[in-house]
Design goal:
- About 45% of the residues lie in helices and about 20% in strands.
- It is an alpha/beta fold and about 450 residues long.
- The strands form four sheets. The protein has a five-stranded mixed beta barrel with strand order 1-2-3-5-4. Strands 7-6-8-9-10 form a five-stranded parallel beta sheet.
- It starts with a helix and ends with a strand.
Length: about 450
């Protein structure tokens, strides 16, 4: 087709005997434009990118080259926005498009409609490029990973309300620990605009968390969706989503796709779960396991208390034994002194003094025995008293008591003094199970009524 068209175009210049036709520049350029654009309406070209240049308008200009030639090329903005990977000099690509001639400059350009890297998919290349960039910035570093709380006071969830992921997460959470406080921030997780929408949902939970009291805050967030192709999961490979997860003040568990699927979100998150269901299992322990652990702790406290009482009793008994032994030694020593004195007196034969000393020694012996017995009895009494106090302070006894805490609303301000409230105030009373809202009708302070 090209040869025939060219033959027709220049046939008049080769025919002898006829008037010569002289083309204007515009005419020859226009004929060349028609010739090239009709001959190369849809072609595939393989080459290496060079002179890559992104224009502020969104157009992308480049050259395709091999060892022998260079082909100017361009990608218009409405085409370039669909290319996920970064166009870099030296990248080998395969393109489809058409030739275009621009008459004012007399230049031709290959207009690219589709472009893909040679030997690897475009999305896969974009993924590898972003991984390399974020890893270089330290977003995947282990030292930035925060621990996930064992039993969080609240759980945030970012996912689609219409997908299977939210159903799986809620089902697991309800089975493991029904009544857990959950905050859901819905987001589009697939298709055009899903990346920014996930970012919005993550930021919304963080902002909402700042308005809550410390005891009611969300301590962990699950961000994810069910499995799918790389195109389906692409929102979780976007840079804006990765940075939103990294900047979140709440620790994030990434739960994207099935076990074989890894995304940028998985690498940035504080913890990666292979599925949404596993994420729910990681975030909250089973209530039955908590009861087992609580019972184990109770048994440990009981054993510790019993061992403390036994150790204390052994100390007291040891001291009592030592005091009794000391009293016996004193008695024996005095008896030895008495015997020596008796021998002396017998040698001097002072009969009256001997009788007096015998009575004094006998009286001293009785006092020693009485005092020793009283001392032992006193120590035993102290031991029993200490054991009773230890039993009173035992955590096991506290479990049987009833407590409540009053909060002034709004603001959840703990009421420690009757002067902190006035008639008409709303009071929230937190019990062992549940809460009670009430309105103050009367305040008593220092024996006087304040109406």
């Amino acid at each position: 087709m090209t040869d025939n068209f060219a033959a027709d175009l220049f046939s008049q210049t080769r025919q002898s005997g006829k008037k010569r036709h002289v083309y204007t520049v515009s005419e020859i350029t226009q004929d060349i434009k028609i010739l090239l654009e009709n001959a190369f309406t849809e072609v595939w070209v393989e080459g290496e990118i060079s002179n890559a240049n992104a224009h502020p308008s969104g157009h992308f200009y480049l050259s395709l080259k091999d060892k022998d030639a260079v082909l100017p090329a361009a990608i218009f903005a409405y085409r370039s926005k669909n290319i996920k990977f970064k166009l870099e000099n030296g990248l080998k690509v395969i393109c489809s498009g058409k030739l275009n001639v621009y008459p004012p400059l007399g230049k031709y350009t290959f207009l690219i409609d589709r472009l893909e890297p040679k030997g690897i998919g475009g999305l896969q290349l974009a993924l590898e490029q972003l991984k390399k960039k974020l890893e270089g910035e330290g977003l995947f570093a282990a030292e930035h990973k925060r621990p996930i709380p064992y039993l969080p006071s609240g759980v945030g969830i970012v996912t689609s309300l219409s997908g299977a992921a939210i159903k799986d997460i809620l089902k697991v959470l309800d089975r493991r620990f029904s009544g857990a406080r959950i905050v859901i921030s819905p987001a589009q997780v697939q298709g055009e605009g899903s990346g920014p929408d996930i970012v919005r949902a993550i930021k919304l939970i963080n902002e909402f968390n700042d308005t809550l009291a410390v005891s009611e805050r969300i301590e962990v967030m699950i961000v994810g969706r069910g499995g799918g192709s790389i195109e389906d999961l692409w929102a979780f490979n976007e840079e804006v989503v990765a940075r939103a997860i990294y900047e979140s003040k709440i620790p994030v568990i990434s739960a994207v796709g099935h076990e074989r699927d890894w995304t940028i979100a998985d690498l940035v998150a504080d913890l990666r779960a292979p599925t949404p269901s596993v994420a729910a299992e990681l975030v909250i322990p089973k209530k039955e396991d908590l009861w087992v652990k609580l019972d184990s702790l109770r048994q440990g406290l009981l054993r510790a208390a019993e061992e403390a009482v036994l150790d204390f009793r052994q100390v007291i008994e040891d001291r009592a034994w030592r005091m009794q032994l000391g009293a016996e030694n004193i008695f024996k020593l005095n008896l030895a002194v008495f015997t020596a004195a008796e021998k002396k007196l017998s040698m001097l034969n002072p009969a009256v003094l001997i009788g007096q000393n015998i009575r004094k020694i006998a009286d001293l012996s009785r006092q020693i025995q009485v005092r020793a017995g009283h001392f032992i009895e006193l120590r035993q009494t102290r031991l029993m008293s200490a054991a009773q106090r230890l039993s009173t302070l035992s955590p096991l006894n506290v479990l049987g008591r009833g407590y409540s805490i009053a909060f002034k609303m709004p603001g959840n301000i703990v009421v420690k003094d009757a002067a902190m409230v006035t008639k008409g105030d709303i009071i929230k009373t937190r019990l062992d199970k549940g809460e009670v809202l009430s309105q103050v009708t009367e305040v008593k302070k220092d024996g006087r009524d304040k109406i």
